Amino acid sequence: MASSTVGRKLAAIRGLHRFMVTEGLREADPTLLLESPRRPEPFPKALTVDEAIRLVEIPDLSTVKGRRDSALLEFLYATGARVSEAVGVDMGKVDLEDRVAMVTGKGARQRLVPIGGKAATAIARWLPDRLNLLHRAQHGDPLFLNLRGRRLSRQGMFDVVRANALMAGISAEKVSPHVLRHSCATHMVEAGADLRTVQEILGHATISTTQIYTKVSPAHLVEVYVQSHPRSR
User: Fold this and answer.
1) Catalytic residue selected from 67, 82, 151, 187
2) Same domain as 113, residue 11
3) 82 is catalytic
4) Residue 79 neighbours by CB under 8 Å, 6+ apart
């Protein structure tokens, strides 16, 4: 029986005993001594490298929408930013020369994230369109706009990601901005990036959160072990 099922049944039993104690039908609650089953941490969903590349390269660069979509998709995949962080990025927080951006994460904590060459190129290509679209009567100076010139919303970002996923032949149910975040981290770990670096890029408070990415590719772990451990062969 799955631990989640055991947990639900245990919660019902605890509720019954609490009721019996409250109504005076029992003197003590025996379920206070029971421990809840530990739920296994779910593996993060990630695209394959081929799927991720197909997705970020699918937008039609001959259109304003396509250039905007390209900049957004490349940014999400390059930085591993949360959707709320990408929504909140203003132009003043982006340095295309040094290829970094300042994002504001959980608890209003700010961090620098690297922007790869492909993402920097896509953003630079989008900037003239952005300037033409920009609606001046709004808070801040957002990097990503909807086609009415206002800051792109969270839902707007979901729509951009899923619409382009469909064009790339990837199931829309499989893709979201958060899946691109997981894909960024997974592909970096599989390519040999150390967890501390990935932790800093993703803005995880603790390394234990980042360690889940080591579980995504057991074959990669075995490969690294064989190459690095003196008694592996």
Assistant:
1) 82
2) no
3) yes
4) 86, 101, 103, 113, 114, 115, 119, 184, 201
